[in-house]
Every structure is written in C-alpha cells, then in structure tokens.
Amino acid sequence: MTKIIDIHTHVGDIFHENRNITFKTNIKKGDYEDPFVEVERSGYTKPLIVSDQKEHQRLIDAGQYRVWECTLENFLIDMTESKVDYACLLPVLPNTSFEEYLAASKLDNRLLPFTCPDFSLKIPELEKKLELDLSRGARALKIHPILQNISLEDPKVEAAVEVFGKADLPTIFHVGENSYYGPDKNYPSNPEFGNPRYFYEFAPRFKNYPLIAAHCCLIAEDFANNTKGLDNVYTDTTMCSAELMKKGVELIGEDKILFGTDYPFGTFKYSVEEVRRAFNDDERMLNKVFFENAAKLLKFSENK
Ligand SMILES: [Zn+2]
Predict the structure, then answer these.
(1) Inside any domain, residue 205
(2) Residue 273 lies in a domain
(3) Amidohydrolase-related domain: which residues (predicted)?
(4) Strands of the sheet with 211-213, listed across from one edge
(5) Residue-level pLDDT at 304
(6) Which of 70, 113, 121, 302 could form a disulfide with 126 if both were Cys (CB 3.0 to 4.6 A apart)?
(7) Distance from the CA of 238 to the center of ligand 1, in angstroms?
(8) Residue 96: what pLDDT?
(9) 268: CA distance to ligand 1 center in Å?
(10) Host domain of residue 22
C-alpha cells in the first residue's frame, strides 16, 4: 500500500476573522448549507467557483464555517480515518502562523509545518525570520497573494523565495483568481493577484528553485502551455476530478503532480478516492502522485 503525503492543508482560521481555532477542542460540525459537499460528492466535476453572486456568497459562508471547525483535533481524526500518512500544514499570515503549526507538529509527527513570509517586516528582517524558521524545521514556504494582499512582482516575494530556494526547498503559491469575502467585508485583499499570469511571469525568473503553483491541475492545459520548458514548476491535485488529474500528468508531467486537498475546503476522503480512480491499479503512478514526488521535493524521509 502506497504512503500518502498531502502537500496542501490548513488548520485553524486562515481568514481575517482571525479566531484562534487550532487548539480548541470538542468543536462539532455545524448544520449549514455547504456547497463544498455538493462539489466533492460530484467527484469534483461540479465547478466550485461560480459567477452567480448569491451562489458565491454561499460558498464564502461555508468556507468560513469550515475553517472555524478546523481544529487540530478534528483534522487528525479525519486524517487517521482516511489513512493519510503525512500532511503539510500551510500557514497564511497574519491569520495562522508557522509557530502554531510547529507546535502541532511536535504533538503529532505526521504533520509537516511550512512557514509563510511576514510581509509587514522590511526585507532584511523578513529574511532573518524565514532563516530562523528554516533552522527550526520549516519544511517549505507558502505565499497567498490574495489573502496576504501582495503581488508576485513585489521584491519582498522574491526575497522570501530566495531564502527557501537557496536551501533547495520549494515555495507553494496560491494560484487562482477568486474572492474570499462578500461585499459586507472590508478586509485588504486583491483577487486579481491570484491571476495565473503572475505565476507564469515569476517562474522563469527563478528557474533553479522549485515552485509549486497550487490548484493548477484544474487548468492543466493553460498551465502546461505557459510553463513550457520549465523544469522547476509543480502543481497539486486540489479540487480535481480523476479526469483532470490524468490530464495533468499527461500535459504537465508525471513527476510534477502532487497530491493535495486544500483541507478543510477539500476533504481527505473524496480527494484520495479521486486519485485512486484516476490511476486505478497503476501502483507506480499512485506512488508518484501520493508520495514520491512530494517526498523528493521536500527531501522528506520517514525516519527523520
Ligand atoms: Zn489553500
């Protein structure tokens, strides 16, 4: 049986309501309308992002409820149930931090903490903080241009990617233009910064550093066309149907596709099912997508 690393998960409230969720206990799933359930039950064939404003608001609300239930306790129960062996925890500052994920990883060694740049710092301090995180066990770097309200053209992004690139460790970017807040909220956030073109322009400038563009298996064809000849780009299978995963492997490459859920927005159960459906009894591909590709990239071995 192949091992599973989930390259893309979150615990706690990554949004700006910023409730301290990670270490709460006994939080049960509430009863609310949840379009994420409809999408996962369709095998990720029903589109998640829709243009209808009212429908999108339902998604925003459900996303918010989901993160408020996303305690470490609930996360670990789901992880165990779906036999996911390791999960990478991706913080989004200022709302969730490397420090809380590092603490979580000390409580359970199936958790691999990533860090995130503190863009409120000046570049030298920002670099120093990331170097410290690296020395404390940060496995990789996460950047969320929309929630962190930063363009990939900002020199602070380059500085952060340099720190991990020099250590030959990857940076994972949120890619995809979508809004996380309805018209009633006024948080600083810029959906346009998620437009894939920013990543397409960024990636060739950092050819020697491994870069993961999250969610791009969903746009496999566009992604492959715009990153032609680049050997440093990877993507994850978040919110993907089996059909799209197969397309991703074919167009982007079998070493470039990493299993990811974007938990709590995607769930372990349905995401694992889709990978198994995509690659069926092809043990070699299952092993690559579920484990080997990510393990190589993160220099992860089970005995340390
Ligand atoms: Zn995510």
Answers:
(1) yes
(2) yes
(3) 5-300
(4) 141-143, 171-173, 211-213, 233-236, 257-258
(5) 57
(6) 121
(7) 9
(8) 94
(9) 14
(10) 5-298
